[in-house]
From TrEMBL:
This is Cupin domain-containing protein. It comes from the Bacteria. InterPro entries: Cupin_2, HNL-like_cupin, RmlC-like_jellyroll, RmlC_Cupin_sf. It comes from Microbacterium deminutum. The lineage of its organism: Bacteria, Bacillati, Actinomycetota, Actinomycetes, Micrococcales. Residues 40-97 form the Cupin type-2 domain.
Amino acid sequence: MNIEPTPPTVKNPPDRFAGDVWLDTIATPHEPDQRMTVATVRFAPGARTAWHSHARGQYLRVTQGVARFGHRDGTIIDVPAGQTLYTPPDEDHWHAAAPGCFMEHIAMLEAGDDPVTTTIWKEHITDEEYLGRGVRDER
């Protein structure tokens, strides 16, 4: 057994995130056959990811605030703390703090067969996409 060292908090890069977003790594693989990475990610109000997808999908457990998730079809889903969202492999999406509140989630994902494909980053979302022009499902 190991008590893991606590890596420093890092600010996520502006080519992949708009606004202030910080990441704290919880777990990364130790052995060659391990794939799981887990991190706590904190978003300032209105901060958001760029469009992206994950080779093996992703789980996001909202732990504080309200998360906003978007899909290419224009669907926006607001998810409160205590709920988990699953994004299937290769599905384009974005996530953000809902307007006016901070948001924190735990991100859980597995590396792709080629680690370069684990997360494919794309263009930034527009303000229109963030504010929602499509169907909205509030839970």
